[in-house]
Every structure is written in C-alpha cells, then in structure tokens.
C-alpha cells in the first residue's frame, strides 16, 4: 500500500480538480460532450486536445458529474480533432433528464436515441487547451465558477511547498554529490581503486 | 557581566529560524529541468543491529488525521479522474489494510461478488481428457482440459490461462511433472491448501467463473471490486459482500489477532481514497447523478 503520507499529500492536492481552468457549470441543455483526436503527439497538432482531456476534462466532469463525456483517440496522425457538443433540441426538459433519471442506465445509452448529431462541432487542431475551453464556454454559455479564497490560499501554499521542495532537492543533491566525490577521492588516494576507472 | 557563551547560545537559536524563513527568497529556480529526479538521503544513522528489536507488527498510521471520504464522494472524484476511459476497461479497486502480526497466518480466499467484475476468465483443468470430470469441466466453461499436453505446454512457457485447477486423481501425475517451478511464482500451482485440488471439477469451475481471488500480502488485501460503469448502489453491495467475507475469513483464523484497519477505494487512474464507512456525506452529490453513463 502506498505510504499514507504520500496518499494524504495527493488528496490535499485534490483541490486542483475542484478549481482552475475547467471549473465550469454547464447548462442543463448540454447532454453530452465528446472529444476526438489522435493518440500521439506527432507534430503537436493534437497536443492541445490531449492536454484538454488530461487537465480540463476532469474538472468539467467533477463539476458536471451527470454529464456523459467521451474521448475517442484514433490512430491516424492526419485525422481530425474535433470537440462535439450535444444539446437537447427544442424541449430541453424532456431530453436532458432521461440520462440522469433512469434507474439502471449502465447498460443502455438513452442519450444516443435522443440526438446523435452534435449541435456544435469545433475543429480543435492546433488549438491550445485554454482556447478549446474558451470555445466550449462560448458555445454553451457555461458559468465559470470562481475559486473560494480559502481554497485559493491553500492552493498557493501547495504551490509554494512544491517550489521549495524543488530547491531543497537541488541543495540536498549537491551536498550528497560532494560527499560522494570526497569519498571517491579518498579511495583513490588510498589506492583502493585504480585511477583509470 | 554575563559570560559570552550564554549570549551565544540564544543567538544561535534566533538565527536558525531566520535562515529557514529566508529559504523561499532564494533565487527561484523556475527553469529547473522537470526530469530532475528525486534522491533519497539517509539523514539518521541506522541504530545498532544488535540493539534494535525486530518489529513483530506492521507499522500502523493514525487515521484520525487522515482525510476520509464517503463512498459517493470518492466515486465522484474517481469518475472525474477516469474521464474519457472505457466503462469496462477501468476498474475500481479496494485495498484493505489489517492490523496484524508480520509472521502470522494470512487471509486468502475467493469470492463471488454480487456484480461480477471480470467474466472472461480462462480456466485450466488438469484431469484425464477422456474422463467424466473433463467433460464436466468443459461443460462448466473451462478453456483448457487435459493432462500431458498441458504439462508440455506449461513447460514450454505457454500459459494461456488465469486459473488452474486439478482433479484429485491427477494430482500425483501433476506432482511428478514438476510444474512448481513454472506455476509456483505465478501463484497458479494447484494445491489442496488453496482449494484448487478438487474432486467435483464441474462445480469448482462454475464457482470460479464469476469469482475473484484475493490474498493478503504485507497486511494488505487488494481486489478489483467493480467496473467503472457501476452505480454507487452496485458498488455498495459489492463492497459489503467483500468486507463480510473478509470478516468471516478473519474469524476462521482462530483467534489470530487481526483487525481491519483501513479501507481504501481506488481505481486504475485515480488516487486512493480512504473510506469512512458512510454511503453519503452531508454535502455530497446525489447517488443518481453518478449512476449515468460516463
């Protein structure tokens, strides 16, 4: 089992999934989001899309837990990179509720029958992840949630801690290397190892 | 006039924290390479080996200071971490930590979860290929049945199964074939101790098809308890079933001191969340929200 201190530190850093870019409340009419891009970062055309998946989609999913989000990664480097937004068409109430209110929806996908053509399709090739998010917010009219001040200070603390850890790491490393070098020199002087090695 | 030394000592104490607080103002090394690997540095000398007594228990942490989550909260986070993954490819895992002796007997068993996690288990049955037992095993869903040809295959290193059973009558033959060297490290070697040497092969295979196996290693039992698409209610029944079987297993060890210390829910791509035993917290989202498709 992972050491408890490590685990707790990771949980303290969970704040990243609550706040930051992507902490948005999507309107009820949005029934599904799907992203499509290439598997690898060849030529970096799909880099933004992939970063969007890794950094921003978890936040969106956390804030909109009932919203189905799918990611399709194809194997064609020249292939497309799209962000599809599905919305319930004229009557938002009837189409938006089924996916969340059916008691056993694990096997069936009710939203697929409601509408299977995306309302908005955004080409996201060569987009930075923040641009993709901007486009999403603009198209759907989502509410961007603000970070509560106490969580912001805690996040700043974590950031500072990490920075200091990096500085400390360098310091300790230098010290350790120095000790090792001295030991090596001593060994050399004593003739325990040959100078060639 | 006071002795100069008495002044020095408090001064030394004053300077120490001021150095520490000055640390963040060191030149920020923002341009540090990210691949900077961490190094471990032993700060304390190991005590004399003769003096130190070997610990008999596994170290236990104090959980009162730990962050604990209700099941729904943990699933809320985990589903966010697993965004874009397949509902059947990612799994929920449980890690159950015991308070136990290092050298005591360990928990090891199989159980059938109410909602099975994995259904495509490949089972190998060692039995004479033209016997009734072999026919039973095939009917129950075993993928490999036989004796000599299986031994030959295993010795070549072709292991195309996840579980191995042995019929009681074939036990001697199997032991003669000396498969322990190949199967032992993988934990696949049939033996009476693990309940994989059986007389009624058909029933055993049947009970194994939907079942998962778990064992205690370093005071922790790990088990995949659900697919990512499961609802909180399904997870709850699975977790309850698992914990109850674990308690029965502990009771069967006849008074060996062993208690459940910590229960952690994790998944393929998410960190571990210590569960507090509640289904829902005060301000967690409704379970229905988490029941939908991913």
Approximately what portion of the residues of chain B adopt beta-strand conformation?
A: 15-25%
* Beta-strand percent range of chain A: 5-15%
Number of strands of chain B: 10
| CATH topology name of the largest domain in chain A | Glutaredoxin
From the alpha-carbon coordinates, what is the Rg of chain A to the nearest angstrom? 25 Å
The total of helices of chain A stands at: 8
What's the total count of β strands of chain A? 6
**Average of pLDDT of chain A:** 80
CATH superfamily of the largest domain in chain A: Glutaredoxin
Tell me about the biggest sheet of chain B? 6 strands, antiparallel
CATH hierarchy: architecture of the largest domain in chain A: 3-Layer(aba) Sandwich
- Identify the overall geometry of chain B: globular
Unreliable residue runs of chain A: 90-113
Please indicate the count of domains of chain A: 2
- Largest sheet geometry of chain A: 4 strands, mixed
Write a structural description:
The complex is a heterodimer of chains A (197) and B (294). Chain A is an alpha+beta fold. Helix content of chain A is 50%, strand content 15%. Chain A has helices at residues 4-12, 15-18, 47-63, 92-96, 98-101, 110-114, 129-140, 149-190; strands spanning 24-25, 30-38, 69-74, 82-87, 120-123, 143-144. By secondary structure, chain B is of the alpha/beta class. Chain B is 30% helix and 19% strand. Chain B is built from 8 helices and 10 strands. In chain B, a hairpin with a 2-residue loop joins strand 7 and strand 8. The relative contact order of chain B is 0.22. At the A-B interface, helix 1, helix 3, strand 3, helix 5 and helix 8 of A face helix 2 and strand 10 of B.
